[in-house]
Design goal:
Number of domains of chain B: 1
Largest sheet of chain A: none
Distance between the termini of chain B: 52 Å
Number of helices of chain A: 10
Order of helices and strands of chain B: EEEHEEHHHEHEHEEHHEE
CATH class of chain B: Alpha Beta
Chains: A mainly alpha (235), B alpha/beta (253), C alpha/beta (258)
Order of helices and strands of chain A: HHHHHHHHHH
Mean pLDDT of chain A: 89
Strand content of chain A: under 5%
Number of helices of chain B: 8
Strand order of the largest sheet of chain B: 5-6-7-3-8-9
Largest interface: A-D, 64 and 65 residues
Radius of gyration of chain B: 19 Å
Helix content of chain B: 25-40%
CATH class of chain A: Mainly Alpha
Radius of gyration of chain A: 20 Å
Oligomer: heteropentamer
Bound molecules: adenosine-5'-triphosphate, magnesium ion
Number of strands of chain A: 0
Strand content of chain B: 15-25%
Helix content of chain A: over 70%
Low-confidence stretches of chain B: 249-253
CATH architecture of chain B: 3-Layer(aba) Sandwich
CATH topology of chain A: MetI-like fold
Chain lengths: 235, 253, 258, 235, 253
């Protein structure tokens, strides 16, 4: 267990000496994951709400698939995005492979189903209470959707955080499409994986501690936002 | 309202079924423009189901709900309803009304006036910026009324709208309902307060176990209904859907 | 950073040993060209280059590198440097192979003793060499997979760690071994066999096949690596006083590929 | 994009010829993930419900941390479990390293916060409706917790599925503590990672398709269970 | 019930504050064993807050709520409450009662009898296996009553328990409340039905804007309250907490 002691020492010295490299990696991790979660929320929240609201043939199957896609394996997503963005692939000309943009794209695929599936559940629970009232007031489906997203904002934030958790923690997809290139696409998780493969477990753990601290900071920021949102009454 | 009315409303052999239970049984009725229609009947008779069905919130399992005056327009847009347990959005009192108005595409400057007016009429002026969900239930019921009135519907469904109101508020709401009816709004309402039913009804529908047993002029109905169960109901002797001899109220303290 | 950059597909062994951290600043200072290294398994590195996603290939599996050139994906391949593989194992040495000069014979003893042996099992350059050695020993351990012969399916660092935990023998490249030996309960038991030599090569990706390839700066990097300056830089790279890679380019500027 | 065609061909041929190896890997994947999710549910659901119900100093911080731990990086969890189970570690004598049990343990750490954090949100939303009624009826906190878990069963199932999604898809932790040893600890995700590093992208993708199909099957099974639970009225 | 009563209940200068608003203002009152206490007052006066405060569901911001007879026992265990909007668990009607009984450690065989009895008394016998949440609101209110009665509390809080009930059901529930009171259950109840208040009250508390303005014998109170606002309230002239001259009911149709 000396490693764990060493790990904390490593973590503290990493943060204490906060070298530019670490700062760069932390920043890129945040940029990629926050970016991916932002895009995934814009897609996933309305998508989940729509599946919750509308009744159409095959809806049950869509719910099943959405729930299943919460378990989309990062490596597989990474591979598919790689094949699309590769020079040999259909979007190769864009030259996005091994860039942060590619990492965001891959993570969007991972995170969107999580946010959508969890949002569906939240909105469906609310819909059973709201449906008749909103329809009676004359809400179109689009307006009903907006009202539900707003009224469910506090609970939906947890869904978004779950998506962020997946994004910030995952390594498989960003490793493949980012390539873990130093100073270009190296993020916390790929840096950790690198140290593990080098066998420097203490440094890997130290980076891990920094990453968890980062997650806690984000989660605390969201808690503040949650407090504000809970109080926000008017639109 | 100069737009033509969506009325009359006709139910043709309408039934409503859930979990293999017929909750409304082959109702046929024509509800015309003009008279205030009051629906009465014991708990669980199906009054709320009937209102929701007419309002289009639930679909009949059999039969048809027809708005003969709709002429291709969406009838729901000309109706409003105060539910038995109104749902408040997680917003301020004013924002709840604002939301309803915005759904009807009323421009923002106009909305402010309508909101102030509706709050004034229901005595909620002081609560404009309070979260709607912390209101007392009587206040919530008043907010639901305010929210609906602001929409100025052609047809207004009211499901026991004064159940939680204090006597003076009940009085004022009854007055407001009468005023709206005078201005041409069709009132279709349920109540358990027989005094209120007498005060407000032009015509009465008596519902029992999902069946429409009587549909009559108010005066005639309260003078003495044709249906035996309706008579028992008026005398307070229809308990759990069954006729019972009960000690008359007042004799027991 | 410079605005001009090239992408090099390489193996984890070179990256894990820290070679690029030593070389790249020197090259970048000299030319202003940024080198981006994507370190993956040998198979994946070849695949990246085949798809035109890398401008240069730096791996250690000569047969597949030559096949890569022969199929027209690469324009030329050059020897760059070498090190060697070592057979490492627990100090208890249950199969008694310590000090043997012949790797194949050592493997044969391990098989006979059914002593735990951990294979990379990932079709990497190291794994391919290991299979070749088993073949030389006249043994096919695949049938025993899951018993004494275990296939890790992981990179070199993880495999060494696992072997150390399982008190198993394994074949490792010297670079990774040197960078990790301090943290392992393993020792070098067999080394120096000619069959253990590990040749690294640098392969230029064909601009004919992939016109978007940054052939010119990639070639500059390759030339620098092969040049006396690059060779000296490799020679000067040490871990704990030992040289993990020995430069052995025999290239002259006239050989420059077109 | 030929790879994607090849991938489907590979997937079909994998399933069609269903060789023992694939069967073994699929089975182990399911065993490990279902086992981990079962344990994580037993811990996480009551834990989340408890955090939702009880008011105590530091509760806000616990919610923040719980939400943050949804983003626990698999590699880091794998490392910590590895250090604890390694021969030099405190539980080394148990000899659990590189066994399926170790993989279950690591995944329990990953999945429990996800289930607990999502359950907290579900139960907290319900609690605002139920609190006074349950307390008025004389429910002890323990009974209230049980009632909420039962009444929220349908929504909680989505939380459990989110946990399962993480477990079945993750590769970092099982790779480190399991070692991806053929016939012993190789699961779908580690097998996919291996094929990627070999450069056999079609086979990797084929395995990925099989894995996603597996997730869909599990999700469909849960949907059936959900239907049954939704109808279950009495206890 | 031979266990000693937890009464009398005393509120000492109790205030309740939310969002910097004093919703109950320095209430001091002693509620003794015996008389049926009816709390009346306009919407939003704080009646429900007061009941929840006495019942221990919310804690006062200032002052104390004391159960003088509790003698170290948890007073909540001897009370029950029918909320203004009762919450039904997502279970069958019978399971809702069963859950409440199990909380009070009543052994299973006994429970079956108590459930059957409670359902019988509230006319819900036919609904035993129906999901509680699909009941009509009147039926739900009856179920809440059934659930509470089965607990046989010493003190029973009722928050507008008949607001959604039909006349006959109201009658029967009033009878049942009187019967329970006779058997020694302390009744503390709110209502907007002044007729009901007259029928049931032994003593009356009049609440207005969070203040207890009058606490008197029922006969004396209904004969003519001392407080001016209470008088206005009884005459139906206290609107939105303010005195107003309103057209007397009945004159307007
Ligand atoms: N949590 C809260 N936050 C802010 N205001 C509140 C809260 N709860 C209640 N109120 C306010 O306190 C006042 C009293 O509420 P209460 O529910 O006790 O009224 P009530 O006398 O029971 O009225 P009703 O006859 O309508 O049931 C109301 O005006 C309400 O808006
Ligand atoms: N979704 C449903 N599934 C099964 N039964 C239902 C459903 N909705 C309503 N019911 C039943 O239909 C009957 C009529 O309900 P409804 O709410 O219309 O009664 P109501 O006349 O409005 O009674 P109240 O006076 O209590 O409001 C009730 O017995 C109720 O239990
Ligand atoms: Mg009703
Ligand atoms: Mg109240």
């Amino acid at each position: 267990m000396t490693d764990i002691g060493e790990a904390f020492a490593a973590a503290f010295s990493l943060v204490y000496h906060l070298d530019r490299d670490l700062g760069e990696i932390v920043l890129l991790s945040l940029q990629v994951s926050v970016g991916a979660v932002a895009v995934a929320s814009v897609i996933g929240l309305p998508l989940g709400a729509a599946v919750a609201l509308f009744r159409f043939p095959g809806r049950g199957a869509i719910v099943v698939v959405l729930n299943a896609l919460m378990g989309l394996p990062p490596v597989v997503v990474g591979l598919v995005v790689y094949l699309v963005l590769s020079r040999a692939g259909p979007l190769g000309v864009l030259g996005l492979l091994f860039t942060p943009t590619a990492m965001v794209i891959a993570q969007v695929f991972l995170v969107t189903p999580i946010i959508a599936a969890l949002a569906r559940q939240v909105i469906e629970d609310m819909w059973s209470e709201y449906e008749e009232q909103l329809r009676s007031l004359g809400a179109t489906p689009r307006r009903a959707l907006g009202a539900l997203l707003w009224d469910g904002r506090v609970s939906l934030l947890t869904a978004v955080l779950a998506g962020f958790g997946r994004a910030i923690a995952e390594v498989g997809a960003v490793m493949i499409v980012g390539g873990n290139i130093d100073h270009v696409t190296r993020v916390m998780t790929t840096a950790i994986a690198l140290e593990v493969s080098k066998g420097d477990l203490a440094l890997a753990l130290g980076l891990g501690i920094v990453l968890v601290a980062l997650s806690i900071a984000v989660s605390a920021a969201v808690a503040l936002l949650r407090g504000t949102l809970a109080q926000a009454q008017a639109r | 309202m100069t737009t033509p009315s969506i009325l009359p409303l006709e139910l043709r052999a309408v039934s409503f079924e859930r979990d293999r239970q017929r909750l409304l049984k082959s109702l046929s009725v024509r509800i015309a423009e003009g008279p205030r229609t009051i629906i009465i009947g014991p708990n669980g008779a199906g009054k709320s189901l009937l209102l929701r069905l007419c309002h289009g919130l639930i679909a009949p399992s059999e039969g048809e709900v027809l708005w003969h005056g709709a002429q291709g327009r969406d009838p729901l847009r000309f109706q409003a309803m105060v539910m038995q347990r109104p749902v408040m959005l997680r917003r301020s009192v004013a924002a709840n009304i604002d939301f309803a108005l915005s759904l009807h595409r009323i421009p923002r400057p106009q909305r402010r006036r309508l909101i102030a007016e509706a709050l004034e009429r229901t005595g909620l002026g002081a609560f404009a910026r309070v979260p709607a969900r912390v209101l007392s239930f009587g206040e919530q019921q008043r907010l639901a009324l305010a929210r609906t009135w602001a929409l100025r519907p052609q047809v207004l469904f009211l499901d026991e709208p004064t159940a939680n109101l204090d006597p003076a508020a009940t009085h004022v709401i009854e007055d407001a309902i009468l005023a709206m009816a005078r201005e041409g709004t069709k009132i279709i309402m349920t109540t358990h307060d027989l005094g209120q039913a007498r005060r407000l009804a032009d015509e009465v529908m008596f519902l029992h176990r999902g069946r429409l047993l009587e549909h009559a002029e108010a005066a005639a109905f309260f003078a003495g209904p044709e249906n035996e169960l309706a008579r028992a109901f008026l005398r307070g002797e229809l308990l759990w859907w069954e006729r019972r001899e009960l000690t008359p109220p007042g004799t027991r303290v | 950073g410079a605005d001009e950059f090239i992408t090099v597909a390489s193996t984890t062994s070179t990256q894990n040993a820290g070679l690029f951290d030593h070389l790249l600043p020197l090259f970048e200072a000299e030319t202003g060209i940024e080198v981006r290294v994507v370190a993956v398994g040998t198979g994946q590195a070849l695949r990246l280059a085949r798809n035109g996603d890398a401008d240069l290939l730096l791996v250690h599996d000569r047969p597949s590198e030559e096949a890569f050139v022969a199929e027209g994906f690469g324009s030329a391949r050059f020897d760059l440097m070498y090190n060697d593989f070592v057979l490492v194992g627990p100090s208890a040495d249950p199969a008694g192979i310590a000090g043997l000069g012949d790797a194949a014979a050592a493997l044969e003893r391990i098989a006979r003793a059914e002593a735990p042996f951990l294979s990379r099992g990932d079709d990497s350059g190291t794994h391919r060499r290991e299979r070749a050695l088993w073949q030389a020993a006249g043994n096919d351990p695949g049938a025993a997979s899951g018993t004494w012969y275990r296939e890790a399916g992981q990179g070199m660092g993880a495999t060494l760690n696992t072997a150390s935990m399982m008190e198993a023998y394994t074949l490792a490249d010297r670079g990774t071994w040197l960078s990790m030996q301090g943290r392992l309960d393993l020792g070098v038991l067999v080394e120096g066999d000619a069959g253990l030599r590990n040749q690294y090569g640098v392969t230029l990706v064909s601009a004919a096949r992939h016109p978007h390839i940054k052939a010119e700066p990639a070639q500059r990097f390759a030339e620098w690596l092969l040049s006396p300056a690059g060779q000296a830089a490799i020679d000067g790279f040490t871990i704990g006083g030992e040289r993990p890679f020995i430069p052995n380019a025999h290239w002259t500027r006239d050989e420059s590929p077109g």
